[in-house]
Amino acid sequence: MPVESSPYLVLVVLLAGAVAFALVPLGLAWLWRRTFSPSKPGPDKNAIYECGLESKGDAWVQFKSEYYLYAIIFLIFDVETIFLLPFAVAFNGLPPAAFVAMMVFLLLLAEGLIWAWWKGALTWR
Amino acid sequence: MNPGMDEGLRSELSKQGIFTTTLEDLYNWGRKNSVWPLGFGLACCAIEMIAASMARWDLARFGAEVFRPSPRQADLMIVAGTVTKKMAPQVVRLYNQMPEPKYVIAMGACAISGGPFKEGYNVLKGIDRYLPVDVHIPGCPPRPEALLHGFMMLQRLIDEQALTGPRRPRHLVADAPSEFPVPQYGPHDLEPPSNPEVWQPPSSDKKPDVG
Q1: Residue B184 pairs with which residues in a beta bridge?
Q2: CA B74: distance to chain centroid?
Q3: Structurally, how many domains does chain B consist of?
């Protein structure tokens, strides 16, 4: 049968070659492991922690959900910094309306911080 | 090295440009040139070990520059420095966590015997009380050249190990223990003070040479 009759035959051969190229070394390694590298498990070798110390407790620990408050309050300063730097760079060329808009924006953020402070979000419980 | 082939035939073939080898030799050749040490240092010997891994002494020439931060990926434990009794359980546990085949180099007088701190109440008098040490490197601290020499000794040891028979490494012995007992940090000393399977105190029938 000439190859021209099915032009995709070459691709199939290449695909088979590629799969064999990946799988044969893995299979050889598996055979080698079975013969010359028998597994020797033990309680220390199977332990989860790796720095020589014994692991204490469980890996499934809970984090306090109060952390999200600090993340949000951090966002106030984060956003403020991002806007304050270009504001300071372009300060001399700004029209008064832009200055007022920026002050309102800062006031909004400061108001949020004061409100959070007043609600006691900055006190560690 | 090759029991199945006549040595004369082998050299005759190599003169004709035909190189013959065995699976075992190939395996050991790959193994001895890719020994990955565990990256941990205990005392001043660690500085020399770090120097040996850097460009001036260049442990990378021997394929051993990849100091692994995890025992899961390491083949070689270089005990570089004084092992205190508080540290010894961790060292043994790290060794237990390394995959087979694994090797231990005791680098420096402290790791061999406690060294200048042997009289200290908190110093382990040699890591070979708990671990099967393959190469001892004397010195206080040993220079990087000494570590390189010790490493070449270890390479020779790996090269001479067989896949079968009496010269096979420990992990191929079916009844060899998979782990070494980790000592506990007791109120007075480590318990047990040594692992009798790897270390026996020197016999006392010999007259002690008291200087």
Answers
A1: B191
A2: 12
A3: 1
| Interface touch B172/A41, C-beta < 8 Å | no
The stretches of A1-125 forming alpha helices (DSSP H) are: 9-36, 67-89, 96-118
Residue B184 belongs to a domain: no
B164 located within any domain: yes
pLDDT (tens digit, 9 = 90+) per residue, B165-204? 888 888 888 888 888 999 998 888 888 888 888 888 887 6
Interface test with B, best of A44, A50, A54 (most B CBs within 10 A): A44
pLDDT in tens, B94-147: 999 998 889 999 999 999 999 999 999 999 999 999 999 999 999 999 999 999
How far apart CA A95 and CA A107 sit, in angstroms, is 19
Strand bridging mode B190-191 / B184-185: antiparallel
Instruction: Tell me how crowded residue A88 is: count the other CB atoms within 10 A of its CB.
Output: 9
Rounded Cα–Cα distance for residues B90 and B96 (Å): 10
Whether A37 and B171 lie within 8 Å, measured CB to CB:
yes
The CATH number of residue B87's host domain is 3.40.50.12280
Residue B49, both tokens: 């070990």
Domain assignment of residue B17, yes or no = no
The Cα A119–Cα A111 span in angstroms is 12
B146: containing domain = 36-172
Contact (CB, 8 A) for B98 and B74: yes
Please give the backbone phi and psi of residue A61, each rounded to the nearest 5 degrees, phi first. Answer: -95, 155
Three-state DSSP class for residue B115 = helix
